[in-house]
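Hey, can you fold this?
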Amino acid sequence: MTLKGKLTGDNVLLEKNAIEELHNKSYYGRPKGDNLEVSLTESAFLIYMEKIRVEFEGKEIDFEDFFLKASSLLKNFELFYIVYKDMRERGYYVQPGVTGFRVYPRGGHPGKTPAEFFIFVTSERIPLLLSQLRTHLETVENLKKRLVLAIVDEESDITYYEVKKITLKGTYKLILGKKLSTAILLEDRVMVWNPDASLALQKDGFYGKPMDEGHLQLSLIESCYLLKKGILDIENKNKEVLDFDSFSKSASDIESNFMVKYSVYEKLRNEGLVPKTGFKFGTHFRVYKNIEKIEKIEKNDDKIKLPHSDYLVHAIEEDHVFSLQQLSRAVRLANSVRKEMVFGTVDSHVDFFIIGRMRL
């Protein structure tokens, strides 16, 4: 039986028996008095499935006309429809929600089980503001739900990503003594000439990389951290001693976003993780959770053998805007090398969240 309804405003009002036929059995819409109120997205799907017929201004409209009308009433309606149809055809019960849709677990439904996750729908072409993402994340976390991004590409394929906050913790404890040595800032890196200090920094802290036997080169980030911790003194090439402020200023002249990266690096190190450069992966850091102390470094070996890293971490500011194409590349690369893609957000403090592919 095909049910009848009228398009009124931004929803469709269906006749009384639709409550039993569509809501009580398949959880479409919301009862409103003696009628069933159905959203534009639900209505389009029900018209497509030939379960309802809809009138507008006294005339029945077909799927095409309804779709065009709905598109004029709801921005990006076609994206919502594509995702809604996909979720329904996968066997999920879906209802409109604060971020797009509420999705119920398989075997569950409204009135029986709480929603499992909330879907935020967007297009690959629409830049995603970090502030927008954080608002959605805070909303769903307050509701004790999961947040899923549904990104629709230009061919209407959908990629689903789960976004969640994470507290990163590692097992490394800083055991280096104070004032190991004085190091020299060159152009864009720092050199430790003292062989004993070089060995200690490698073995006990996993800092730097040997340039040759007894000489260690440190990145600007590592050097700034060691300077702040009082483990190294640093001079410039003119033998002028640099404090944290002067060193970080020099580093910022070399790399404009240095302090954003440093804030994330410092947080990671302070939480017992070991960050190393992530340049080969197109990100700021590759990060290790558990690294045992290196008991021996071979005399002629200039490489420390580290296990596989656990995370790729990219530092971003609170006004960051994601390109979804870049985001997709970053997550896919992280997954392909068996890591998780983590973003460290920097404002008054540093927070971390993971974005990963979700298979439904």
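Oh, and this one too while you're at it.
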Amino acid sequence: MQESSTQIPTVARLDEASATGTTLVSWSSLGLQRSKIILSVIALLLLLIALVAVIQSVSFEALWASIRTAHIEWIIMTILLVCTGQLLRIVRFKRLLEWDRAVGARAAGQATLIGQVINWLSPIRVGDIWRIWRAAQNRPGSLLWTTSAVVVEKSADSLVLAAFAGALLLAPLPEGFSPPVVRLLVTALAGALLVSGLSALSSAGFRRRLLKFMPKVEVWLDIANATSPSDLVWKGRAERWLEMLSYSALIWTVAILTNIALAQAFDIHIGLASHVLLLLALQTTSVFSPVPGNVGIFSLVSLGVLTTMGVSNADALAYGSVLYVVVYGTLLTAATATLLPPLRPQPASSPVQHAPHS
């Protein structure tokens, strides 16, 4: 694990460059997000209008009846699965950072959970930048590696979701969907995810993805004259990539099980291929939607996908609404818990020297 950090010979200059910089993201780069923020406001208004139209088409009594009759034991199982998925994300990020040097579980947990909360609330998704800063804090010389770790993590997710989409192409589609249209969309999504994931394996592609998250990382790379981050991660480390892919596959499998558990709570019985399709639809719209907080996304996507499979409007809307509350409610609770003082604080080291025994 130490050899990766020694490949950067001028780590001190990395820290000097980061210390003299004004911020991780300059005001000019934030200014470029102005149009995206405006788009977020417009999209939010359109979603609210769509939600109002949907709510008017579904009576509140029917919606409340669907929620009230849901099986509480399956909702509890859904919450436990969401917690399991978040725990796996923390372990994966910690393991990835430890390719370079040791990191505390508390720092990895805060970076992972609070970063997701910031991404959820921010239309410009600056949570990844905060996550990089938090994970690199108190770890001199690790900023470049931490930035690379976030990109590697997202690349592994892209490759696993691309595999899920490819598997969906081989499975029979649920009734109600147009096979040519769905297969075309899924093929396009799988191709985009595959290209996105494989870009981390090339030096130029990896650098472009780094610049997407942290525009000023180019300065640090030039100052350090270091090898590319992909070289630091890829050369001689195929087994570590397999480890990351295994974690990612497990995380997204738990996500599918989460959807299945919540579907059982509402007595929604659809096939595995339908749950994979629903996961891809939810993930795509959540990631690429410019709406802060993903307001209305889960409800509208669940309504659009599940009703096509024959689920009633009330059950589909209740499913999406409860899923939103469970996922982000659990995330907020877990992120808040990482800010609390540790239950077992480390004892302060005593400066008193013990006298030698005579």
